[in-house]
Write a structure and sequence with these properties.
Length: about 290
């Protein structure tokens, strides 16, 4: 039986003229207020006019394919190549069994679970001709932790330098639903801190949504304020809920949070994202091999 790996990701526009359609996909056809759309457009303009997410994910797929020796496909939830189109292509290519991995190490029903639902819908459309093994989480995999630590190590002047780990926030209602996301992102942060024997580190949620509902905290801004009050003049912000550069890194961290810190007389440093680092690709390969036959 011909096997393959399917990498799943959020998807993002690669140019400003794609913003409107992309946001309608994210919102399942429900329009946002024009002012909010314009705010998001300006964020993408500030990072060069589009997201590098697709290009990086395709590089990750190519490197993983070389590592595993089986085809690796990419399907996006909210932008091209859409999951449904990728699954149809896999069927046309004669794939009989696949490992589905989301490019988010920690599981949540609102993120990874949603991508899996879209994949199952696509499988139903092609008559279920592909058997799928689902990788729900790899948040504590030793190679993933090593990859995050490898990126973080050069950014540390000394072990006493404060480190603030971050992950993308979700609506707070996930806690009441028993979702494992909060526990898993904090576990990833703790594992990386332990790997490097960090003396001073903390965790915060970033990129809360532009909605009225309550989102998971604490916020990055509140943690920066705490560091400032403690007399810190510099710190390292390390996003461990993300595996590549995109707007939540290049805008939220590199522009917004860096400016927030600067206004308080502090220097924010950020390690290079995992992107297609060889150690991260080895982590993906190790996880995939556990599901390949």
């Amino acid at each position: 039986m011909k096997q393959a790996v399917l990498l799943l990701a959020h998807g993002a526009p690669v140019s400003l003229d794609q913003i409107d359609e992309y946001l309608l996909n994210v919102r399942a056809g429900r329009p946002l207020a024009p002012a909010v759309v314009e705010e998001i457009r300006q964020r993408y303009a500030a990072i060069g006019g589009g997201s590098p997410l697709l290009a990086i994910t395709l590089r990750q797929a190519k490197a993983l394919e070389a590592e595993l020796g089986v085809p690796v496909y990419v399907g996006m939830r909210n932008w091209k190549p859409y999951i449904r189109d990728t699954v149809a292509q896999m069927a046309a290519d004669g794939i009989g069994r696949a490992v589905a991995m989301c490019m988010a190490p920690q599981y949540s029903t609102m993120s990874v679970g949603f991508y899996f639902r879209r994949t199952r819908e696509a499988l139903e459309q092609i008559g279920g001709r592909i058997e799928v093994s689902w990788v729900e989480s790899f948040h504590r995999h030793p190679l993933l932790i090593a990859a995050f630590a490898e990126r973080l190590r050069p950014a540390l002047h000394a072990h006493s330098c404060p480190v603030l780990f971050t992950a993308h926030s979700l609506p707070a209602k996930v806690l009441a639903q028993g979702d494992p996301y909060d526990a898993e992102v904090r576990a990833t942060a703790a594992a990386v801190a332990s790997e490097l024997r960090l003396q001073h580190w903390d965790f915060a949620y970033q990129s809360q949504g532009l909605t009225e509902e309550k989102w998971l905290g604490p916020t990055v801004e509140s943690r920066i304020d705490t560091l400032c009050a403690a007399g810190a003049k510099e710190f390292v912000l390390h996003p461990i809920g993300f595996v590549c550069d995109h707007v939540e890194i290049l805008y939220d961290v590199d522009i917004v949070f860096r400016q927030y810190a600067s206004e308080r007389g502090m220097t924010l440093r950020r390690p290079e994202s995992l992107n297609d680092s060889p150690l991260f690709i080895q982590a993906l390969a190790a996880v995939a091999r556990e599901h390949l036959r």
